[in-house]
Amino acid sequence: MKKIEYRLHHLISDEMVEKRFNCFNEVLHYYKDIESSRETYDKDSSHLVFYIDGKFAGYTRLTECPYNYMALEKMSDIKLSNDKYTLEMGRTFVIPEYREIKLLNVILGIGLNICRQIGYKKVIGNVSYENHIKMPATVGFEFTNELADFKMPFSDKGKHTFYLLECDLEKTNAIRQNELQRLQALLLTKGYEFAIY
């Protein structure tokens, strides 16, 4: 049985930066090089990393509002939830070899659980319009029906367009726990185990 574990780090490591650069540059070409992928927001964020049998498998960044990426880099006057009870979940990815086992859903569900347990009420996020990446509603994210452009200086266009998302952590808690239990049972059949935090 392969063990999925996760740790919340308060500093970003070179390994996290390298893996994020590789994943986001596969399709979206966010960054010019690895150094350009070191973002201002990293130092004020927590970094939730998932490991499978000790090997780096996935990641998400948790950034307190209001000094977060979405608030400061949006190119239009879109209103965002932006108070001390709100976190932004962003830069979420799974390395290629683990994308077929629903690890993204586990990362989002566990990440939202952690946000709730440390006292936050809402999480905001975004999904790529160009790449059609979807964050599952099964863990509590809801589309706000708004699109926003964000500055991406090293992309081909200088910007990327995203759908905006929100998750009310209390309202969606029961749904999320049911989904995490479902994922836990599903992954056991594939030879993976994880604990729900």
Automatic annotation (TrEMBL):
Superkingdom assignment: Bacteria
InterPro entries (UniProt xref): Acyl_CoA_acyltransferase (IPR016181)
Protein name from the UniProt record: Uncharacterized protein
Organism of derivation: Aureicoccus marinus
